[in-house]
Amino acid sequence: MKAFLILEDGTVFKGTSIGSTREVISEIVFNTSMTGYLEVLTDPSYAGQAVVMTYPLIGNYGITPDMESEKPWSDGYIVRELSRIPSNFRCQGTIQDFLLKYDIPGIAGIDTRALTKILREKGTMNGMITTNENYQMEEVIPKLKAYRTGNVVEKVTCQTAFVQKGKGKKVALLDLGAKKNIAKSLQRRGCQVTIYPAHTPAKEILADHPDGIMLSNGPGDPKECKEIIQEIRKLYESQTPIFAICLGHQLMALANGADTYKMKYGHRGGNHPVKDLETGRVYISSQNHGYVVDTDKLDSSIAVPAFLNVNDGTNEGLRYIRKPVFTVQFHPEACPGPQDSSYLFDRFIDMMGGNQ
Question: Is residue 246 flagged as an active site residue?
Answer without folding.
Answer: yes
